[in-house]
């Protein structure tokens, strides 16, 4: 991105100023110079912002020719501190409200910066639209400096899309342009980015001289921002080249520069993520985890990729923290494609088995402690409040329901592990033996193995560390819609995930099992054609779960108080364990199951 040095030459009618008072244009010209100096130095950004506010607060500033220049400086300040929203708002207003044709540099730079912002937001079509607008202006004016800058940005766009060969082409073209003009900033940007692309293409010998030249330029310019960008790319390059001393030197220099830059800035985030990868490759698991957590917390989602989740899971596994390893591997599986997901699912099973072994002893100790405290509390309550016998009896029934459900869930886990580790693997071995000799049987066996694997995943309890009950039910309904002939709809009101994350995990878990059991029975019935599931907040801390289908009602449906049937008893235990109330009714040929509960 090019910081403009806009110089305005104009004439105006001579007007005598009041005694001792400078004309507003003279004051603004002086402020413009000071602001430009401040914005060129990352350490003086706030000083520049104070001068911008001073200029914009002057009476009559909107009528001067300096007004768009000061407004442009304001957007440049937001860019410097990493405030993307205000930066974008500023540039859109300049593009729509001000006469940019009077300033040729702005007519190129404003759409070019909007392309840069849209690229960072992931709005690729919009980015290309603004880049094309800027490119047309640059070609019209024959401005090689801007052609180089826009080539750099289009190359960066391809880089972020992992189109490394296309990125290399644009960036090398940009270097050709910039070598013909005196534009050190754009040349530095192109050198560093082109070097980064060549690192990704494993053209390490070509990348090293480009990055060394860029780092030298950044050092001579005393720019900690660009020095850190270069070091961020050089560190993994030296790791790949097997030059640990050079890699450690980059790390030490970067650590010294990091405090000089805003922690929320793009450059700081990039270095922290590169440092995390370096620690991971060196087996420094605690340092790697700390930096990955910082990267994700500061990035608002941009860095939350399957690769980072997988690295975090492996780091936690190396540290023996199996529950965190399982959770992050599950997040990686969700973000990954189908083939990678199958591989990560197998690792999840291993992590979960190790965690269960470690957790078993802790669970026994917690249960013994819990029983002791229940006994003490019960004795005290019975002694002091004998009149609350009904309340205690209801609480005891609820506790028994929870224990039965816990036993059922343990059995689900055991069966899931047996299916996944035993039956699935045995069928895989048999399938491999049969391939070539009996292809049709091999296909049938493969389908059985996939069904067994899917069943084992369904039996495992859902994780609510990263997903809400709203997200899990949406996924469950999608699976039913894709794998049955039912027409499935699902809604949650409100749709904000933060609300549903506030539900206790125990309540969310039982809700998920209730929906899973009920919808499974509907699918098995084979008479329904439509299924609607909704999750609504009816009041503060009060909620309604509704499951509606158009199948033929069975006797078990119409007699919800019946005590027969293992599935029905388990369902009632789940409802009782969370203090909910369930009801079944029929309206207009529809079977309606409703569950009211509180948080």
Describe this structure in words.
With 599 residues, the protein is of the alpha+beta class. It has helices at 24-39, 45-56, 67-81, 84-97, 104-120, 124-141, 144-160, 164-178, 184-200, 204-220, 224-241, 244-257, 266-281, 285-299, 306-318, 322-335, 338-384, 389-434, 439-459, 469-483, 497-501, 505-525, 555-558, 566-577; strands at residues 487-493, 530-539, 542-549, 581-587, 590-598. A hairpin with a 2-residue loop joins strand 2 and strand 3. Residues 1-20 and 558-564 have low confidence and may be disordered.
Please describe the structure with a list of short key phrases separated by commas or semicolons.
single chain; 599 residues; alpha+beta; five-stranded mixed β-sheet; 7% strand; elongated; disordered N terminus
SSE diagram, text form:
Layout: H1 24-39, H2 45-56, H3 67-81, H4 84-97, H5 104-120, H6 124-141, H7 144-160, H8 164-178, H9 184-200, H10 204-220, H11 224-241, H12 244-257, H13 266-281, H14 285-299, H15 306-318, H16 322-335, H17 338-384, H18 389-434, H19 439-459, H20 469-483, E1 487-493, H21 497-501, H22 505-525, E2 530-539, E3 542-549, H23 555-558, H24 566-577, E4 581-587, E5 590-598
Parallel strand pairs: 1-2
Antiparallel strand pairs: 2-3, 3-5, 4-5
Helix pairs in contact: 1-2, 1-3, 2-3, 3-4, 4-5, 5-6, 5-7, 6-7, 7-8, 7-9, 8-9, 9-10, 9-11, 10-11, 11-12, 11-13, 13-14, 14-15, 15-16, 16-17, 17-18, 18-19, 18-24, 20-22, 22-24
Brief digest:
The chain is about 70% helix and about 5% strand. It is an alpha+beta fold. The radius of gyration is 32 Å and the shape is elongated.
């Amino acid at each position: 991105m090019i910081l403009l040095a806009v110089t305005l030459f104009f004439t105006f009618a001579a007007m005598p100023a009041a005694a001792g008072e400078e004309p507003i244009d003279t004051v603004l010209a002086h402020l413009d110079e000071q602001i430009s100096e401040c914005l060129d130095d990352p350490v003086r950004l706030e000083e520049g912002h104070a001068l911008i506010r001073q200029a914009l607060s002057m009476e009559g500033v909107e009528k001067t020719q300096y007004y768009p220049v000061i407004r442009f400086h304001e957007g440049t300040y937001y860019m410097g501190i990493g405030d993307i929203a205000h930066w974008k708002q500023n540039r859109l207003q300049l593009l729509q409200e001000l006469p940019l044709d009077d300033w040729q540099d702005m007519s190129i730079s404003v759409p070019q910066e909007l392309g840069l912002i849209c690229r960072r937001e992931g709005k690729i079509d919009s980015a290309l639209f603004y880049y094309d607008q800027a490119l047309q202006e640059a070609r019209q004016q024959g401005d090689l400096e801007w052609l180089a800058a826009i080539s750099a940005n289009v190359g960066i766009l391809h880089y972020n899309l992992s189109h490394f060969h296309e990125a290399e082409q644009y960036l090398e073209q940009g270097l050709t342009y910039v070598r013909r003009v005196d534009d050190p900033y754009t040349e530095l940007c192109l050198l560093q980015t082109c070097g980064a692309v060549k690192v990704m293409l494993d053209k390490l010998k070509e990348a090293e001289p480009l990055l060394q030249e860029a780092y030298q330029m950044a050092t001579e310019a005393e720019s900690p921002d660009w020095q850190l960008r270069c070091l961020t790319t050089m560190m993994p390059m030296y790791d790949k080249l097997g030059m640990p001393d050079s890699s450690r030197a980059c790390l030490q220099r970067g650590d010294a520069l990091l405090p000089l830059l805003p922690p929320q800035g793009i450059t700081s985030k990039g270095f922290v993520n590169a440092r995390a990868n370096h620690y991971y490759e060196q087996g420094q698991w605690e340092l790697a985890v700390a930096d990955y957590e910082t990267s994700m917390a500061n990035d608002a989602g941009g860095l939350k990729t399957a690769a980072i989740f997988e690295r975090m899971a492996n780091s936690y596994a190396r540290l023996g923290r199996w529950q965190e390893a399982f959770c992050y591997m599950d997040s990686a599986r969700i973000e990954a494609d189908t083939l990678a997901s199958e591989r990560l699912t197998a690792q999840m099973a291993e992590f979960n088995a190790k965690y269960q072994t470690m957790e078993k002893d802790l669970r026994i100790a917690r249960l013994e402690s819990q029983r002791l405290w229940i006994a003490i509390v019960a004795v005290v309550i019975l002694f002091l409040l004998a009149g609350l016998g009904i309340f205690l009896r209801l609480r005891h029934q609820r506790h028994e329901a929870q224990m039965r459900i816990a036993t059922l869930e343990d059995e689900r886990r055991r069966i899931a592990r047996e299916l996944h580790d035993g039956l699935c693997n045995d069928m895989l071995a048999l399938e491999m033996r049969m391939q070539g000799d009996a292809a049709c049987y091999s296909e049938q066996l493969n389908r059985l193995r996939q069904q067994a694997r899917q069943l084992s995943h369904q039996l495992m309890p859902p994780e609510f560390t990263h997903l809400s009950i709203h997200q899990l039910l949406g996924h469950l309904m999608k699976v039913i819609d894709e794998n049955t002939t039912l027409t499935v709809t699902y809604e949650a009101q409100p749709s904000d995930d933060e609300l549903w994350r506030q539900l206790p995990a125990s309540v969310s878990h039982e809700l998920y099992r209730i929906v899973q059991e009920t919808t499974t029975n509907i699918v098995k019935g084979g008479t329904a054609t439509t299924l609607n599931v909704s999750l609504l907040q009816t009041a503060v801390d009060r909620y309604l779960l509704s499951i509606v289908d158009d199948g033929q009602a069975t006797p078990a449906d119409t007699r919800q108080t019946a005590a027969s049937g293992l599935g029905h008893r388990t369902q009632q235990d789940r409802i009782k364990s969370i203090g909910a109330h369930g009801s079944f009714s029929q309206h207009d040929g529809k079977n309606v199951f409703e569950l009211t509960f509180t948080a």
